[in-house]
Amino acid sequence: MKSTLASLKTYPAIPIIAALAVAFSLFSPYFMTSGNIEAMLGANAVVLIAAIGMTFVFLIGGIDLSISTVISVSAVVAGIVMAQTNSVPLGLVTAVAVGMVFGAVNGILIGYFKLTPFITTMATQLIARGIAFVLSQGIAVKGTPFWVLDFGFMSWMGIPAVTMVGLVLVLVSVFALGKTTWGRQVMLVGSNPNSARYAGINVSFIEFSVYLVAGVLAGVAGFISIANLGNAIPGVGDTLLLIIIGAVVLGGTAMTGGEGSIERTVLGVMLLAILTNGLNLVGIPFYDQLIIQGILIFFGTWLAMKFSGQRAV
To answer: pTM, whole model, 2 decimals?
Structure first.
C-alpha cells in the first residue's frame, strides 16, 4: 500500500494512463495494434521534445508562451535553408540557431532585466509567429531534401526515428536535471529563489540558461516537424501550446516551480497522446474531444496536487 501511494505521489499520471489504455482497448480493436502505437509515438515526437523544454521552465516557476511559435519559425527558416542549399546538416543547425536566439532573448529579458515571463514570452510569441508567416508568405515551404522525408518514415523496433530523437533528449535532460550542479540549482531556484541567492547561486544566469535550453529544444522540435509533415508549415506550432503545457501539468510538474521531473512529463505526453488517439479511434468529434481534454486536465491537476503536495496556481 505504501509503495503504491509513493508511486502515485511521484507519478500521478500512471493511474489515468492505465485506465485510458484499458478503456480504449475495449472500445477499439485497433488501439493496441503495433501500427497504431507506432503512429501515435511518431505523431507526438514534436510535443515530447518541446515539453521537455517547458518542464525546465516550469521548474524555475516560469512560463514560455512562445515555445510553440518558435517551433514554427525554426521549421520555416530551416525549410528555406534546406530548399536553397539541399543541406540537411545546415538546416538542422539553422533550426537550432533560430530557437537559441529566441530562447536567449527570453532569457536575457526575464533573467537579467526581470521582465514578467508571461508578458515577455507573449511578445516573442507574436514576433515568432509574424516572422514565420512573413518568410513563408503563409504557405508551406517546399523543397525538403529526401533524406529528411525518409527520416520521418524510419523506425527501429517499432519506434519511429523522430521519437528516438525525443527519447535521447529525455535521457540527456534527466541526467542534466538529476546529476549535474546546474540541475540541482534549477530545482533550488524554483523552490526558493531567495534561498538560492543566499546559497551563492547566480539566479539570473539559471533563469537565462533555462529559457535558452527551452529555445534550443523548440528549434529541434521545429526540425522534427519537417520530418513528420514533409514540409515546413508556418502554423505547425499554433495548436501545440496548450497541448505542451497540458502534458507537463498532467505529468505532475508544478507551474509554481521546484516540483516535477522530466519523467513525469514523458508520462503526461503519453497520457494526452493516448487520449487523443483513442478518442479518434472511437469516433468522438473534435470539439467533444476538447471538452473531455479540459475535464481531464482539471482532474489530472487535482490528482497531482493531492499526491505531490503542490500549490494551486
So the answer is: 0.94
